[in-house]
């Protein structure tokens, strides 16, 4: 199978969706993308690293823009091959696994690589594997560790679904396990024990009473959230338990570091008799919208009727670039609320619009 990178990016999206590429099974789509970039683009150095496909120009231009997207999808849910239909609003939509997250974004990047003859920025393209599973397998993380110079640039755009809005930066995430201890006893003589599950009550009350902070950064409002996401405890139906735990997830604004986020969560539960363990964390990413390359992208989106700029809720790989001092945004077709759903679909007009806005940006035709 070959991809026609010069075809309409709508058709290119459908072709990518029809290549099954569930996480850990991206070899075939990486082969096809690599072959298309080698055969149908001009001026790109192309490199294969595992199931990551890298390509970049070296025209000596003053700025470099990185276009990055993951090739993998969540498991297929009877939604491949792709199909077109007209919805109740009269819009043509494309259904299929990955239409939103994020093969439509990949299609736009591939199409522009083959059709933008004279960009005003040097370009780096990164198509990577294993984004949808544990971070230890993430292909972009592997490039960061093993080929970090490929992540150098002045601006990074990740094709994550954003409905044609620029979703700037991202929240950080922190997971903490809070454990209570008690005394085990027979439940018929409960007064002889100390119920560890009951000791979770003040923890849950703290969470119920928590007031989330809202932070405005570069005009983007990030709303924090502190939530119980798992509760565990119990020994048997006739035993007062001597241990119980609750996992808490803190989604924090990017003006906090991970260390500051940990300190804040400790403060929330200060004074309670429990053990505190950090089980996972990832830093957020500041919007970086005042950087010159970001200003030009915003102008291009605004001049073509795009959605504008808003905060990104959730964590994405923009954090990797922000940690390197590179302004990074999420920008792609599709409603992120439809990602991973059985009826995942994207209005094809959004694919066309995002391609036009990025073409304007990359050619300086704002």
Number of helices: 9
Question: What does the largest sheet look like?
Answer: 8 strands, mixed
- Strand order, sheet with most strands: 1-2-6-3-7-18-8-17
Output the structural class. Answer: alpha+beta
> What is the radius of gyration computed over CA atoms, rounded to a whole number of angstroms?
23 Å
What is the terminal-to-terminal distance? 36 Å
Low-confidence stretches: none
Q: Which H/E pattern describes the elements?
A: HHEEEEEHEHEEEEHEEEEEHEHEHEEH
Kindly state the mean pLDDT as a whole number? Answer: 95
Strand fraction: 25-35%
**Global morphology:** elongated
Q: What does this molecule look like?
A:
This protein is α+β, with helices and mostly antiparallel strands. It is built from 9 helices and 19 strands. An 8-stranded mixed sheet has the order 1-2-6-3-7-18-8-17, sandwiched between helices. A hairpin with a 2-residue loop joins strand 11 and strand 12. The longest helix has 17 residues. The relative contact order is 0.19.
Keywords:
single chain; 366 residues; alpha+beta; eight-stranded mixed beta sheet; elongated
Topology of this protein?
Blueprint lengths: L8 H9 L9 H14 L3 E6 L2 E6 L6 E7 L12 E4 L5 E4 L3 H17 L6 E7 L10 H8 L8 E4 L7 E3 L3 E10 L3 E2 L14 H9 L4 E4 L2 E4 L1 E9 L5 E2 L2 E10 L5 H11 L6 E8 L9 H12 L5 E3 L6 H5 L5 E3 L14 E3 H16 L3
Parallel strand pairs: 3-6, 3-7, 7-18, 8-17
Antiparallel strand pairs: 1-2, 2-6, 4-5, 5-19, 8-18, 9-15, 9-16, 10-14, 11-12, 13-15
Helix pairs in contact: 1-3, 3-9, 7-9
Put the structure in a nutshell:
The protein is α+β, with helices and mostly antiparallel strands. It has 9 helices and 19 strands.
């Amino acid at each position: 199978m070959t991809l026609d990178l010069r075809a309409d990016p709508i058709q290119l999206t459908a072709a990518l969706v029809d290549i099954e590429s569930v996480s850990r099974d991206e070899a075939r789509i990486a082969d096809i993308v690599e072959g298309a970039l080698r055969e149908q683009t001009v001026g790109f150095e192309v490199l294969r690293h595992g199931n990551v496909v890298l390509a970049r120009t070296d025209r000596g231009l003053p700025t470099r823009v990185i276009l990055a997207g993951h090739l993998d999808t969540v498991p297929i849910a009877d939604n491949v091959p792709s199909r077109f239909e007209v919805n109740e609003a009269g819009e043509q939509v494309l259904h299929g696994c990955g239409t939103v997250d994020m093969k439509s974004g990949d299609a736009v990047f591939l199409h522009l690589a083959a059709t933008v003859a004279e960009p005003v920025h040097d370009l780096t393209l990164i198509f990577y594997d294993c984004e949808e599973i544990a971070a230890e397998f993430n292909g972009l993380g592997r490039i960061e560790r093993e080929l970090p110079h490929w992540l150098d640039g002045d601006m990074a755009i990740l094709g994550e679904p954003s409905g044609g809005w620029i979703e700037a930066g991202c929240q950080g995430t922190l997971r903490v396990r809070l454990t209570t201890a008690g005394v085990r006893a027979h439940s018929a003589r409960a007064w002889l024990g100390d119920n560890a599950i009951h000791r979770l009550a003040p923890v849950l009350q703290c969470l119920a009473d928590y007031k989330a902070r809202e932070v405005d950064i570069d005009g983007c409002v990030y709303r924090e959230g502190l939530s119980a996401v798992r509760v565990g405890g119990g020994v048997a139906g006739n035993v007062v338990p001597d241990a119980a735990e609750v996992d808490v997830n803190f989604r924090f604004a990017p003006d906090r570091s991970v260390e500051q986020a940990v300190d804040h969560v400790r403060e929330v539960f200060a004074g309670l008799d429990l053990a505190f363990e950090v089980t996972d964390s990832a830093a957020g990413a500041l919007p970086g919208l005042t950087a010159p390359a970001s200003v030009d992208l915003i102008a291009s989106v605004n001049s073509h009727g795009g959605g504008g700029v808003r905060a990104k809720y959730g964590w994405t790989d923009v954090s990797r670039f922000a940690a390197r001092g590179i302004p990074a945004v999420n920008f792609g077709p599709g409603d992120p609320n439809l990602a991973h759903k059985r009826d995942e679909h994207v209005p094809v007009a959004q694919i066309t619009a995002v391609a036009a806005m990025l073409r304007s940006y990359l050619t300086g035709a704002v």
